Amino acid sequence: MDPPNPQLQHCRTLRLITYLIMKRLNILAIILGCAFAANAQTITTVTYHYTGAVSKYPIEMQLLVSSNTDTVMGEYYYTSKGRNARLDLSGTRNVNDTLILLEKNFQRQNAQGNALLTGSFRLHGLDSLSGKWKNPSTGAVLQTTATLRESLRLMRPSDYEFRLRTYKGRMMNAGGNEDTYTKTNLLDIYHEGKLLQSLAGFDAVLFDHRAEVILEDLNFDGCFDLKIPIYFPERTKYDGSYLYFLFNSATKKFEPHQQLNDFEYLTFDPVKKEFYRYDEGPEGFIINYYKWRGNKAYLARTEKEQ
User: Fold this and answer.
1) Are residues 207 and 190 in the same domain?
2) What does each C-alpha distance from 53 to 56, 95, 179, 273, 296 come to in angstroms?
3) Any residues with CB less than 8 A from the CB of 86 and at least 6 apart, and which?
4) Residue 15 falls within a domain, yes or no?
5) CA 298 to CA 215: how far, in whole Å?
6) Which of 33, 163, 191, 231 is spaced 20 to 30 Å from 286 by Cα?
7) Alpha-carbon gap, residue 298 to 151, rounded angstroms
8) Are residues 84 and 180 in the same domain?
9) Are residues 130 and 103 in the same domain?
10) How far apart are CA 22 and CA 18, in angstroms?
11) Is the same domain home to 229 and 299?
């Protein structure tokens, strides 16, 4: 038997030490990765609906305020012209609840081909808005007031914190290729700093890898409900939807609503107290309108898309 080779033994020892170090680093990376996924920041976007008037002209306004930015997006319309004549709003909201909003009409364009700037708002408040609207062409200023349709007394979004647990998962996409997506299967809800409930029973791909919870009154009872934007990578169309949860004012907790989940992508109209979705009929696209009867929705009417 040949005598031991000290140099060879030293190399083997180095390899073993390197292997153990890399193994521990991989384990640490997995732990940190899981912790990062579990604690990834969840964006909360609140959808506020207001009813009011610019001078003597009644309006309906919707504003979307997100927790990760001071930017505000939304739209409004004059009730005399109807919902289809909506004007887009974008701007900022500061810590004193002052809103600076620009109004644009995307159905009209300026000389540069951009959406026409048709007005601006400077408003104050949250549960009620007051301020002024200004015409950029004439400089005319009109008094504006609006009242929040949702009740902050029944449910105040700022009292809640939402944490989606996210992780990376492999799935087949519409092209037949496997890809990595950001998924979620648990939502922890905190009220005034204390864990209120944990919602599970779902496993969905998040839309645009974005951990977001949207609060909106879905059943028009004055309380904010909850929806999570999700994505179906295996589909070639109708690939976006939501997971829906209704707020139970008796238990003060959110409950999944399977009927809304089955309807998938929906638009809610708090003025008419109905919601709708687009479907394909034998003669083209149709719009199915639904109303609430208790905790269940029923088909109210069907219209052809104009």
Assistant:
1) yes
2) 6, 25, 49, 20, 33
3) 75, 76, 77
4) no
5) 23
6) 231
7) 25
8) no
9) yes
10) 6
11) yes
Provide Rg for the chain, Cα atoms.
26
Q: Which one of 99, 117, 148 terminates a domain?
A: 148
Into how many domains does the chain fold?
2
Q: What angle do CA 32, 228, 91 make, to 5 degrees?
A: 100
- Are 133 and 231 in a shared domain? no
**Residue 215 structure tokens:** 């609060």
Tokens of residue 65, six digits: 């305020």
Please name the helix (run of DSSP H) or strand (run of DSSP E) that holds residue 37, with its range, or none.
Answer: helix 6-38
Q: Which amino acid, 198?
A: S
Q: Are the C-beta atoms of residues 205 and 233 closer than 8 Å to each other? A: yes
Give the model confidence (pLDDT) of 57-83 as tens digits: 999 999 999 988 899 999 999 999 999
pLDDT at 280: 86
292's tokens: 């609430």
Separation of alpha carbons 51 and 149, rounded Å:
7
Query: Percentage of the chain with pLDDT > 70?
Result: 86
On whether residue 29 sits in a domain, the answer given is no
Q: Write down the pTM of the prediction.
A: 0.84
- Residue 212 CA to residue 45 CA, distance in Å, equals 7
User: Which run of H or of E encompasses 246?
Assistant: strand 240-248
